[in-house]
């Protein structure tokens, strides 16, 4: 008697979706735990009862006041980490470059140079103005690096883009130093901002940056299916009906909005956009419909944890989150560069 067997790909199609959903739930749980640790741990450890009372509106004890002060810092760390993780995943998809990252490609330094030029030469003092200027600088740097990396035979290869980004980032960093050095009135505050951190967060700052991050998030997630087509190559993507130039422009704009606004809010934090997408691919694969939201969640969790670590290891002082992420990201970057298949994503 013939035995009826289930379709071989039906279970295979369900299992990855189930596994990816479990990973997403786990990422949400890790993020929630990191946020709880962020409001409870620091120079003063706060108990769960005081955390609950402070989140409920109480502000009567020193511990509850500490929790109230840490809430906007936690929210900013979540938003900036999500923005950097998502923008890194989008940039890697747009360029098909496993080394793409807002820091490595010079986008963060482009935003930094634009902000410092606005402060020094044009007297820019408005926090909202910082965001617009940072986004403009990030966009200009992204276009410049992609244009330079596209010159010559073979177009925009991963190696050429990485070299162009590294050279541009170094040049912009030198220009930032040259612009700031004669101005002692802005050197101190800008130096702390340039390290990258979320210590000066406020609810007003979070609200100002939120609309830019929301637009960047929407544009990036809307490009997920098209990025899957781009991974097959421009010719195949065009054959599947994708407008390659439009897809790159839309996704690139979303990534620039995300990293520009994040840089304006917290400074040029490095390596989050590089490390997080690679971690996510190991867990859930290369489908951008899953990769992009998972990169946002894991980026938020990573930056929040890094901020908590920076506050705990040097109590009562703290290590800025930009230094912690650099310590984590630099070895990962070296590992990725040494891999055999670094030339293609």
UniProtKB/TrEMBL annotation:
Its main location: membrane. It is found in: Cell membrane. CDD domains: TM_ABC_iron-siderophores_like. The chain crosses the membrane at residues 21-41, 74-91, 103-124, 130-149, 161-181, 201-224, 245-270, 290-309, 321-338. The keyword Transmembrane helix applies. Pfam families: FecCD. It is a multi-pass membrane protein. The lineage of its organism: Bacteria, Bacillati, Actinomycetota, Actinomycetes, Streptosporangiales. InterPro entries: ABC_BtuC-like, ABC_transptr_permease_BtuC. Belongs to the binding-protein-dependent transport system permease family. FecCD subfamily. Keywords: Cell membrane, Membrane, Transmembrane, Transmembrane helix, Transport. It comes from the Bacteria. This is Iron ABC transporter permease.
